[in-house]
Specification:
It contains 1 helix and 9 strands. By secondary structure, the chain is mostly beta strands. The N and C termini lie far apart (33 Å).
Length: 188
């Protein structure tokens, strides 16, 4: 099922007392290579629009379906990360999915909560401390922004355990060929 899935990481602010990981800066594979923009969309949400409750802690907490354009030539794997930069404690990671096969062009709704999939893709730890998608769950107040980012990489990743935003960022550094982004909002 994951062979037709792309890694998605979702980060959002939450009311739980959880560990916050910072997002290291990521560089392209070479200083002279221009990073390709990859279209990232979802039939479940409009760019900049509200994230339906189904994909949040107030609903089923399913990962949203994602679709993306073709990866650049030389792509060996894909990764998806979802982040909430508006969380009270700083950027909060909601989802890390990495080593997605390079020919993948979509991820279905409700990705299984497996740590590792038969096609080699795997979940990293979100800031809830779980290797799965954890939907938006901000404290009451102003809506938060949630950035789903897709990365095309020129390598399979072998991050150090535990696989957090920091270790996946370090493993991705210097290997990014292209990137796509989709932002949605959610508030309670």
């Amino acid at each position: 099922m994951v062979t037709s899935v792309l890694a998605t990481v979702f980060v959002a602010g939450c009311t739980q007392n959880v560990k916050n990981t910072s997002s290291p800066s990521l560089a392209t594979s070479t200083a002279t290579t221009k990073m390709k923009t990859i279209e990232l969309t979802s039939p479940a949400l409009t760019a900049g629009g509200p994230i339906p409750p189904l994909f949040t802690c107030t609903g089923k907490n399913d990962s949203p379906p994602l679709s993306f354009g073709a990866a650049p030539e030389g792509t060996m794997s894909l990764a998806v990360i979802c982040e909430d930069p508006d969380a009270p404690s700083g950027t909060f990671i909601h989802w890390i999915l990495y080593n997605i096969p390079p020919g993948t062009t979509s991820l279905p709704q409700g990705i299984a909560r497996n740590r590792v999939f038969p096609d080699g893709s795997a979940h990293g730890l979100n800031d809830f401390g779980k290797a799965e998608y954890g939907g938006p769950c901000p404290p009451p107040g102003k809506p938060h922004r949630y950035f789903f980012r897709l990365y095309a990489l020129d390598a399979l990743l072998h991050p150090t355990a535990p696989v957090t935003r920091k270790s996946i960022g370090a493993a991705m550094q210097g290997h990014i060929l292209g990137q796509g982004e989709l932002m949605g909002t959610f508030g309670r």
